[in-house]
Amino acid sequence: MEAQPAGDAVNNSGLAARPGRTMTAKERVLAALEHRRPDRIPMFDSFWDEFRANCIEELGLPDDVDLPAHFGTDVRIVAADETPFCRQARVLQDDGARRTQLDGWGRVIETRSGAFFYRELANAVAVPADLARLEFDPADLPERYVAYDRQVADWRDRWCVFCKIGGPYLRTTFLRGEAAFLMDIAGDWPFAQALADRVADHITAVGLESLRRGNLWDTGLWIYDDMGNNRQPMMSPAAFERVFLPAYRRMVRTLKGAGAARVVLHSDGNIEPLLDMLVDAGIEGINPVEPRAGLHLPTLKERYGRRLAWIGGMCNSDVLPNGPLERIHRQARDIIAAGEEGGVIIGAHSIGPDIPVSHYVAYQTTVQQEGQYGV
Predict the structure, then answer these.
(1) Residue 237 falls inside a structural domain
(2) Range of the domain at 336
(3) Both 178 and 318 in a single domain?
(4) What is the CA radius of gyration of the chain?
């Protein structure tokens, strides 16, 4: 390795963070993930369209405002079309009030005008015998990456960009249906494992192609796999170890073996009973660390030390919506203090219209003004 100037901290991307210099977003995020002291605590938040509209109205922002850029967030996530049947997706019926469509997961879903949720009418894997008939579209189809390529080109010079794939639990529920797949995990775990393995291999291939096309090896990849509710994981730790841990080990080993610098897991809910196994699989960061699910970022940071980085920690279901401001400041300060020597990126699960703009501004101002560490 080429010698570096004395006193410079060097991250895995080869970027030197010199004392007294403001880091770029990429330098800042990688320093935190490598458990080094950043110049300030990095931020990662995502915003609902309704919250964005509220900001435009209340703060007088232009209609085309890039809200993450306006609020100084550091991380951007880009995703290809990972659906296994992307070429077959089409609308089956649409009368204006009700739409039925076949999606890229092989589901027949119904949506209604003005409704937020959809209804699943059929799934690609109706019975275990359907597993043998599954044929997925290739992972390297150019049409999967049209929007992906554009976003990487637009974002890579200003933010720390990671690519994203789904995970073997949640994406398999799309093929099988959530209730049926949970019953499989409990009553027919060899089939559940075989189906999850097929999904894991496919999404890993999409992840490898995403890393290659975006040249994002020096940042890495996030796996999005919502495996918990507010009380506990969706399956027992024993079931996770039996059905999903082999797939996670294989996914992380393949991604890192190909050159991905790090692999982060996003999962809603309380996944604390699974954390030791996720560390064993090679996961290096956890997001969004939801307080409403009983996860307290400073406590977890102390318990796991350098084995995991933590991305999130702010409460978007009580503290940010309800305040008061001093409570918001206090929670942000606790997370800032936990991240002083690295290992923490502050954020919430998502910022929706139930959060007053003034409350989010108070949180963001606390981060910008009190989250300065200096390097």
Answers:
(1) yes
(2) 9-84+136-370
(3) yes
(4) 21
